Amino acid sequence: MIFLAKYTLLMVDAALSLYLWIVLIYIIAGWFVQNRHVSWYVFLAELSEPTLSRIRRLTRNRLVIESFDLSPLVLVVLVYIIRNLIRRIVI
To answer: Residue 1: what pLDDT?
Structure first.
């Protein structure tokens, strides 16, 4: 039973790591992509924006400084905290 729980937590950790990479690629691509209707960018937006919009709504857009949005930074920090908690549980 403990064996299954450890591997389940490791799978959650791997999924969070993949999601973190998706969000980071989405953020960086947002600086360089001219056409935001490209299929791969839309795919990244559909995966990233639901979580980012919840963070923006919870913070009432206080994390937007002029045209710079800090909500991805909050998401990255939260994912790192969750991943560290999972790793402490597994070890």
So the answer is: 57
| Full domain range(s) for residue 35 | 2-90
- In the 3-class helix/strand/coil scheme, how is the chain assigned residue by residue? CHHHHHHHHHHHHHHHHHHHHHHHHHHHHHHHCCCCCCHHHHHHHHHHHHHHHHHHHHCCCCCEECCEECHHHHHHHHHHHHHHHHHHHHC
For the chain, the domain total comes to 1
pTM of the model: 0.85
